[in-house]
Every structure is written in C-alpha cells, then in structure tokens.
Amino acid sequence: YPASYPEAVTVAATNAKDERSLFSNYGYSSDLAAPGEAILSTVLDNRYDSASGTSMAAPHVAGAAALVWSLHPGLGNRDVEDILRNATDPIASTDYVGSGRLNLHRALAFEVPLARARLEVPAQFQGRMDVMGTAAGDRFERYVVEYGDGTYPAEWTRLFESDQPVAGGALIRDFRTDRVPEGAHVLRLRVRDRLGQEVIERTNIVVRNVTLSAPAHNDVIRWGERVEIRGTVFGSGRTYRIEHGQGLSPQSWSSAGIELANGGQLEVMGGRLATWDTGVAAPDLTSVIPSGPPT
Fold first, then answer.
1. How many CB atoms lie within 10 A of CB 68?
2. C-beta atoms surrounding 27 within 10 Å
3. How many angstroms separate the CA atoms of 144 and 108, rounded?
4. Which residues touch 283 (CB under 8 Å, ≥6 apart)?
C-alpha cells in the first residue's frame, strides 16, 4: 500500500529481456509492468545517469497516461486505466506482474471509447450462482467468459459467450460452479467491439464445492454425543463418504458410527452431511474428519 488500493495503477518493473526484475514486487494487485532496469534519467547537477527500480518503471506508465489523455481529454480515470492495461505485450514471468509490459504504440492506436469489461464476483465460487459484471460499450459486439490455470494460463476453457450487452448484471445466470474443477483458477472476461478491439478483465477465484463447516477445527466434543457433520458437497453425479481417524495424522480411517444423509448420494448445500455417534471413537483422543474431494 498505497499501490494495492483499487484507485491506484500498480506498476511492476521488467528488464530488457521482458522478465520481472528481481527487485520488483509482484502479486495480483499489479496492473501492468514497464521497463525498470538500467533506465537513463536525469540526476543532480544537470546530468544524466542510469538507475533501476519500480520508480523507473512507474514514470513510463504515467507518461503513457499523459499522452493518452492529451489525445482524448474527455476520458475518465478508469477509461485510461483500461487502455493502459490492455495495451501490453506478454512477458516471461512465473510471478504475476500485471497484464504484461506496456506497449505505448498500442495505447495510442486504440479507437476510443473502448468497450467496458468488469467482473464483480466473489473470490470463492460454490454451488449455483450468477456471475456478475459488465460487458458493454458504444460499439459492443460480443463477450466471452472463460477460465484457465496458472499465473498466466496458456489455455482457456470457455464457459459462456453472448452477443447481448450486460451493464452491471448477470454475465452468466444460474451458473453451475461444478463446471470448473475444485481449486484455484483465473476467471477472464473478454469483450470485443465492432472494430475488433478487445478489452480483458481477469480475477482469481477458488472453487470450493466440497467443504466441512462443522464440527470446526479444534472443536471439543463430549464423548458419546451424536454430532451433526455439516458442510457442502455440490456437483453433478457426485457421491461422498465421511470417515474419522485418531491422532493428528491418522494411519487408518473408519466410517463406524457415521450415518450419511441420504446415503451420501445427493448434493448438500451448507446442510447436514451426516450424523456421527462419537461413542464408537476412543475417548480423550484427538479425532480427525478429513475434508477432501468426494468420490
């Protein structure tokens, strides 16, 4: 902070090989990158010298923003940010440093206004939900929602596309999140206009359709009680089983005393997965119920 505030444009530094500079910070709050190593700049006593740092990278983006505004003085802050984030070239980095390295020529070549692409989704996907956002613009043509894996996904899987604009509404209605595998992914929205210009918005999501909510971690349960095991198992054709084991790293597992709701054959959303008769477990010992993928 303050670079991670939503109102800021966060700039990482790259070297002459279009790699992340070793000194540069990184992460999913980064918007884009710019050259930041061995950059010739002005110094004291009316001289020039080279220096390195994100303080060398950020002025490249600030200067690009000024040039864009000089050509299009009627644009708003977010309009200019959209241009900068979408006027980039791919970079070689295993760490996320934004949409790519700034390409000033592309920034100045855009026909404005660009289409609008916004994703307004929670970080966690579960069950059925509307995927909210905006895909619109004066020359809007089509939008695509897709997901990929990795910091910079090489392949994308299409989830939905439409030629109907959406302004602050459901991009996908009643989306079954089990269409995306469990775990962390990148969700991407691409909006294209009639000039062939494309605006991209991406965000990171975690799909969690298999969860345990109760008993909670480190809960103390009276031996012999019947305890509700609650959570979520969502997914077409999924069944589940629940087992318990003794100790922090059980060597064996047992389903004794566990009665599954509906035999573990039906989806459960934030409800009772099973009932556990703790009297079958040894008293005064730690028992573990795993939270893993269903069968």
1. 22
2. 13
3. 25
4. 223
CA dihedral (35, 5, 30, 54) in degrees, to 10, reads 30
Question: Average of pLDDT values for 211-223?
Answer: 90
Per-residue pLDDT reduced to its tens digit, 48-81: 999 999 999 999 999 999 999 999 999 999 999 9
pLDDT per residue as tens digits for the range 179-200: 999 999 999 999 999 999 999 9
Residue type, 112: V
Residues 6+ apart with CB under 8 A from 57: 11, 12, 13, 14, 24, 33, 34, 35, 36, 39
Six-digit token string for 156:
């994308």
Contacts of 9 (CB under 8 A, 6+ apart): 31, 32, 61, 65, 81, 84
* Token code pair at residue 91: 């970079």
How far, rounded to the nearest angstrom, does the alpha carbon of residue 19 sit from its chain's CA centroid?
A: 22
pTM higher than 0.85: yes
Closest by CA position to 103, among listed 153, 45, 142, 64: 64
Kindly give, in sequence order, each residue whose CB lies less than 8 Å from that of residue 261, ignoring residues fewer than 6 positions away: 268, 271, 272, 273, 274, 275
Using the Cα atoms of residue 91, residue 97, residue 103 and residue 109 in order, give the sign of their dihedral: positive
